[in-house]
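> forwarded from #structure-qc
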C-alpha cells in the first residue's frame, strides 16, 4: 500500500511533534496523579468519573475521525461494567487493573461480530444501528433477573496489586488507577492518530473513493476504529463501576450514550486532551446545575452545548490546535 503512505516530508514533520506531545502527556499524567492526593474527596470522585467517561467518548472521537458517529457507546460501556462486576463477584478477580482490562476485552468480543456489518454503513444508518444494539442490550439486561434486572447489583471494593484498600485510601487509589489507564490509552490514541493508519481514517472521512483507489480498505479502517472504540468504552465502564460500586441497565440506555456523544461534539475530533477536558466540563456543569437548578439542569446542559457549537464549532480542541 505504498501509494497510501505518507510522503517522507510529512512523516518528518509529524514525528518530532508526536514525540513532544507524548512526553508532555506523560508529564501531565504524572502531575495529575500526584495532585490528586491533596484534592478534596468530592473533586477526586468527580475527576474519576470524568476520566472514565472520557474514555468512552474518546472511542466516539475515534469513529468521528473516520466519518461516522456511534449513538450506542452505552453498549460497550455496560458490557465492560457488567464484566468487571461479574468477574469480581463470581470469579474472584479483584485487582483494579485486571478488571479494567477484562472490561475492555469483553467489550471488544461483544462488538467484534457487528464490526463488519456496521462498517458498510454511514451517516444516520450507522448511528441508528449502534443505538439499536445498545437498546437491545438494555432490554436484555432489564429482563435478566440473574443480573439484578432493572435494579442491577453491587460490587465490592477492588484491590490493587494484591493490596486491599482502606476507607481513607480507596477514593484516591481508584482515582490514580483511572487517571493512569485513561492517560495511557489517550497517549496510545494520540500515537495512532499520527500513524499512517490513523491518517488513512481521516482520508476515509474526506473521500472514501480515493482511499479505495489508493489501495486502502475503507471498511477495514472503520471496523478497526470501531474495535478500538469498543475497548476504550469497555475500560471506561469497568473503571466507572469500580468507583460507583454498583451497576444497572441504565449504563446501556440511550440517554447515557447521548452524554458520550455530547462530550465528543464538545471536544471535537482534533485533540485527545480536549475529550477529557470536555468530559470534566460536563461533570462540573451537571453537578452544579443539578445542585442549584435540580429541575432544569438538562436545559443548562443544552444551552451550554449550543453556546459551544455557536462560538467553537471545531470543539474545545480547536482552541490550541489552530494556535499551533
Amino acid at each position: 500500500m505504498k501509494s497510501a503512505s505518507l510522503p517522507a516530508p510529512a512523516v518528518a514533520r509529524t514525528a518530532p511533534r508526536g514525540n513532544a506531545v507524548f512526553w508532555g502527556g506523560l508529564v501531565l499524567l504524572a502531575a495529575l496523579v500526584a495532585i490528586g492526593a491533596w484534592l478534596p474527596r468530592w473533586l477526586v470522585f468527580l475527576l474519576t468519573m470524568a476520566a472514565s467517561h472520557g474514555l468512552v467518548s474518546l472511542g466516539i472521537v475515534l469513529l468521528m475521525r473516520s466519518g461516522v458517529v456511534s449513538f450506542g457507546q452505552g453498549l460497550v460501556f455496560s458490557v465492560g461494567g457488567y464484566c468487571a462486576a461479574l468477574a469480581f463477584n463470581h470469579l474472584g478477580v479483584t485487582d483494579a487493573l485486571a478488571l479494567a482490562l477484562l472490561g475492555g476485552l469483553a467489550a471488544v468480543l461483544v462488538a467484534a461480530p457487528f464490526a463488519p456489518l456496521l462498517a458498510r454503513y454511514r451517516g444516520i444508518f450507522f448511528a441508528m444501528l449502534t443505538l439499536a444494539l445498545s437498546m437491545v442490550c438494555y432490554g436484555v439486561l432489564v429482563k435478566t433477573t440473574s443480573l439484578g434486572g432493572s435494579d442491577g447489583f453491587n460490587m465490592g471494593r477492588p484491590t490493587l496489586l494484591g493490596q486491599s484498600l482502606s476507607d481513607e485510601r480507596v477514593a484516591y487509589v481508584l482515582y490514580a488507577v483511572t487517571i493512569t489507564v485513561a492517560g495511557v490509552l489517550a497517549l496510545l490514541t494520540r500515537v495512532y492518530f499520527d500513524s499512517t493508519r490513523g491518517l488513512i481514517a481521516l482520508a476515509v472521512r474526506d473521500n472514501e473513493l480515493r482511499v479505495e483507489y489508493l489501495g486502502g480498505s475503507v471498511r477495514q479502517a472503520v471496523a478497526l476504529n470501531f474495535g478500538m472504540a469498543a475497548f476504550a468504552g469497555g475500560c471506561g465502564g469497568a473503571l466507572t463501576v469500580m468507583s460507583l460500586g454498583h451497576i444497572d441497565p441504565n449504563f446501556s440506555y440511550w440517554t447515557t450514550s447521548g452524554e458520550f456523544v455530547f462530550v465528543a461534539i464538545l471536544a471535537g475530533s482534533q485533540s485527545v486532551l480536549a475529550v477529557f477536558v470536555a468530559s470534566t466540563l460536563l461533570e462540573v456543569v451537571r453537578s452544579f446545575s443539578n445542585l442549584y437548578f435540580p429541575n432544569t439542569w438538562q436545559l443548562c446542559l443544552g444551552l451550554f452545548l449550543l453556546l459551544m457549537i455557536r462560538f467553537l464549532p471545531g470543539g474545545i480542541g480547536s482552541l490550541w490546535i489552530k494556535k499551533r
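QC bot note: Residues 28 and 225 are 26 Å apart (CA to CA). The chain has 14 helices and two strands.
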